[in-house]
Amino acid sequence: MLKRSLQRLARSIAQPRRHRFAVVPLAGLGRDAVFDRRTKKWTILRVRPGSDRDVVAQVFHTESYGMDGLSRGQDVRDRYERLVREGRQPLVVDCGANIGASAAYFSICYPAARIVAIEPSGGNLAQAHKNCRSANVEFVAAAVASRPGRSSLIDPGWGSWSLRVRETHDGEIPMVTIQSIVSSDQYRTCEPFIVKIDIEGFEDDVFADNLEWIDQFPVIMIELHDWLFPGEAKSRAFLEAMGVRDRDFVVSGETIFSVANG
Length: 262
What we know:
Layout: H1 2-14, E1 21-26, E2 31-36, E3 41-46, H2 52-61, H3 73-85, E4 90-95, H4 101-109, E5 114-119, H5 122-131, E6 137-141, E7 143-144, E8 149-154, E9 164-167, E10 173-176, H6 178-183, E11 191-197, H7 203-206, E12 219-222, H8 236-243, E13 247-252, E14 255-260
Parallel strand pairs: 4-5, 4-11, 5-6, 7-10, 11-12
Antiparallel strand pairs: 1-2, 2-3, 8-9, 8-10, 12-14, 13-14
């Protein structure tokens, strides 16, 4: 079984470079092997039965958060490299870190960046700590919201990537704001760079208030969930917030990229 997995990995590596990463499940080992064709390095991610392998495929094979193929991709790469040259550390805030695949992806693509990965599920967070051990990545056990508070998780039964946040006065999960991350003593010296948001519909709360952080980040990546909550206008607050700002709006797969102009 392991031999077959390694053979599949070798075939994937040898394929034309249409994708930067080759992803091969290591059957029976509870792991996925990810090979970076650009750096020639491997990353091994631990996966549980269920949706974890779908998460890895979405992040690394599909590259849902990759910008190299987008018209503004070079602008974003140039800004990252300029910040690094000037000695300023780019800040990436990963809202909805799940099993740490996206944090691992950002740490590979932007190795000089400091990454704050926010995840409310204890089970997902335990996987994330195993999957991303970079010194530049810090995991926060919380839900992201428009204001501090408490929340609980709802499991609709569709796997660990579908857990939903609900604000509750006596919830066991703290809620943090993106602005509190940016302005904290811990990250104040960093330069805001990317915010990624995939939080199963709770984006309506995140964009309801306290939006000063939007203008600080040149790139916002988000998956909207109107399709999952028909009739609830989950994307309305996001669209209203973006509509009054000078930003490009690009859709690629399930991800919307909002890129600042000027």
